[in-house]
Amino acid sequence: MTIKVGDKLPESKFRVMTAEGPQVKTTDDIFKGKKVALFAVPGAYTGTCHKMHMPSIFLNAYALKAKGVDTIAVVSVNDAFVMSAWKRDTDQRDEATFLADGNADFTKAIGMELDASGNGLGIRSKRYSMLVEDGTVKIFNLETNPGKVEVSGGDTLLSQL
């Protein structure tokens, strides 16, 4: 199944780092009753993700929230420890929730897996952004080239609200 506008997100689990260590968060924990701007990246600290995609999110964070977004979330097929370090290094104002999809369960469930094994990266997520309201996809922006941020950045999603 490839996710599309109008679809409800499938039940899945993420790992989120807390003071007590990694904790499980379900799709309901993240999305139920909320308006969420979800940004997916192929890999934490990778060139395009770190230098282009993340800045586009945080430069627009205040404006996204002013437009009614309750939560900004970043998901990647990385473990909770890597996502925690990446949050520390990129999210200086604590504006986003970083979701670890270490086994790509969520990514596969929505049909967004990317086979990057040719580059030694294994299965990753395609680059996209979406607006999710109460678990239902309202806006979906899929990047055709994982090395670019042309339609999946924070500025594009903001312009669609």
UniProtKB/TrEMBL annotation:
It comes from Afipia broomeae ATCC 49717. This is Glutathione-dependent peroxiredoxin. Its EC number is 1.11.1.27. Keywords: Antioxidant, Oxidoreductase, Peroxidase, Redox-active center. It catalyses: a hydroperoxide + 2 glutathione = an alcohol + glutathione disulfide + H2O. One of its GO terms (molecular function) is thioredoxin peroxidase activity. Residues 3-161 form the Thioredoxin domain. GO terms for cellular component: cytoplasm.
